[in-house]
Amino acid sequence: MVTDYILEALRGKTTDLKIGNLETTMAGQLWHLRTKISGHFELGKLAELIKSLHPTPAVCGIPKEKAKTFILENEQYDRMFYTGYLGELNLRSGVERNTNPRNKENGVYRSILNSTELFVNLRCMKLDDPLATLFIGGGITSDSDPRKEWEETENKSKTILKVITD
Question: What is the pTM of this model?
Fold first, then answer.
């Protein structure tokens, strides 16, 4: 659902859209699902692109506007740093165009590219000496078991807690 939402949000705002395979990645003691999505966007349109993506169903639910309205009317909690985007903006990288390593003369030809890599951030921490406030949530569906969701949220917190307790 999240991948489909992101692809729809990017349609018409990006070119050369590519979708990677669903993969698992480890953060702390937890395994996460991830799908890499890449494409090109027009320079100066990054803010518009992010606004069309945020919040994703992983954070807000679907349908987006109905879920967002429900959260704002019922949650009675300031999410502050609960979610957002993290990453590198306009990271400069060189791309070698020489495909023959023995041809040293052509080794001087490189392309310099700007790239932006963003990740949906689902866990944050606010440090306000001497307090640390963790922002962690769970994905609740009609099939969710509240006790298991709470246990999963506690497990997610251990990744951040380890940083401040070690």
Answer: 0.69
